[in-house]
Hints:
InterPro entries: Methyltr_RsmF_N (IPR031341), MeTrfase_RsmB-F_NOP2_cat (IPR049560), MeTrfase_RsmB-F_NOP2_dom (IPR001678), Nol1_Nop2_Fmu_2 (IPR027391), RCMT (IPR023267), SAM-dependent_MTases_sf (IPR029063). The protein has helices at residues 10-14, 22-30, 73-76, 89-97, 115-123, 140-150, 199-216, 239-248, 316-323, 349-358, 380-384, 400-407, and strands at residues 36-40, 52-53, 60-63, 80-82, 105-108, 129-133, 155-158, 172-178, 220-230, 251-253, 265-268, 275-279, 289-296, 312-313, 332-337, 340-345, 361-364, 366-372, 375-378, 394-397, 420-426, 429-436, 441-443.
Amino acid sequence: MKNVEFPAHFLDSLKREPGFEAQNFVEAHQNPHAITSIRLNPFKKSASKTGKQVPWCKEGLYLDTRPSFTFDPLFHAGAYYVQEASSMFIDHIIKNIKQNDEPIRVLDLCAAPGGKSTLLNSALNSTDLLVANEIIKTRVPILTDNLNRWGTANVIVTNNDPKDFSRLKGFFDIILVDAPCSGSGMFRKDPAAMNEWSEANVNLCHQRQERILADIYPALKEDGYLIYSTCSYSHQENEDILDWLCDEFEMESINIPINKEWGIVESRSVKQQAWGYRFYPGQVEGEGLFAACLKKTDSSGELPFYKNTAQQKLAVKEIDQVKAYINEPDDYYYFKVNDDWLAIGREHKESLNTLHRHLYIKKSGVRIGKLVGKDLIPDHELALSTIINKVAILQIELNYEQAIQYLRRDNIDINIQEKGWSLMTFEGLALGWAKLLPNRINNYYPKEIRILSNAPTI
Ligand SMILES: C[S@@+](CC[C@H](N)C(=O)[O-])C[C@H]1O[C@@H](n2cnc3c(N)ncnc32)[C@H](O)[C@@H]1O
């Protein structure tokens, strides 16, 4: 048993919260055994990851032990995302509200590092668009890295303040606000977070949450869904926010059916009786989470779409050069950003143009590569993407040691006769590019994301 000292007034404040069981909660925090869970990438099937399934998410798995993810090539290939299990409940909400294959646009407003963006992306079709936004510039690279690993061509990453989205009236069918919060739900995983907790901070978070929601409301379509989540237990940041949303805006609460055995507490807000879903360690196999879903019942007006492209299109000859690399190449719209050549699902072209007018775009679709002389230098994003035509491209399967050498950007201990651009793969999944020359291999793994640390001693 670990000795855990919660912040002053914290446990007292929880006693009033719906479904809270103090003894279970305290014992769960004293238990030194940490729960580890991952979520598999449905677009990159890997047979070697197994475990007990997370009850509310088909692709979620509990692992018996916590491996070193840094030293697992499948992690770098995007075969899975390391995510605590409660957060995967957002998948259950999406499955309940998305009931047909009509193309939709989804916004993940507070997206970095990308746990819920990769989850949303898994639940969407390629004809749906995901916009993953992060306000803090320095947190955008981790978000784009994680989405690059996930590999799909229906994602746009933006770096904007929530209020910038108010211009995109009625643009999104679903908006997820995984709000910055006082963070009590993460105390077990990150005990240092306890030092930051105070009732005053809970109130500040509440005010910021209201501001973010008011800013984003116009961007939601009539009959669109708002999913609101926090990793806080405080009703000020949860049920009170639902009451405020229903009071201030035209919103109705949506009941999400849950299985009693999951241990999730269904709560109702005091005034509007809006449904919320609470996750308490000790009652669920996961960390603290609150989630709720509401439907917008009025309209903020319609946004004019911009048909004309803001980007420079690829010339026909250039597209021919690209086509060899792409599976179903006619499904994509090809364009340039500075020297880079990119591809995004054809159906997302107008959305891209419209977003380009209003937002600061940091990633759109898949970066294919850039032209140097007459040669196309393929990009790392293309290697990890699900749109690459693997059949037409040379692939070298690496064993574990070689894969780690490659991911470290070291020389790879391997004898190869082939020449030219090749995908380096591990268990059939691409890790990145190498250029095979007569006497050596040029390792093109990006240096910014290479493995720097030493292998863990077991
Ligand atoms: C709970 S975290 C998001 C975690 C992420 N959704 C995931 O699942 O990986 C909240 C995010 O909100 C961002 N944030 C902080 N202040 C914000 C604000 N005023 N408006 C919008 N986002 C904000 C933080 O930078 C952080 O990335």
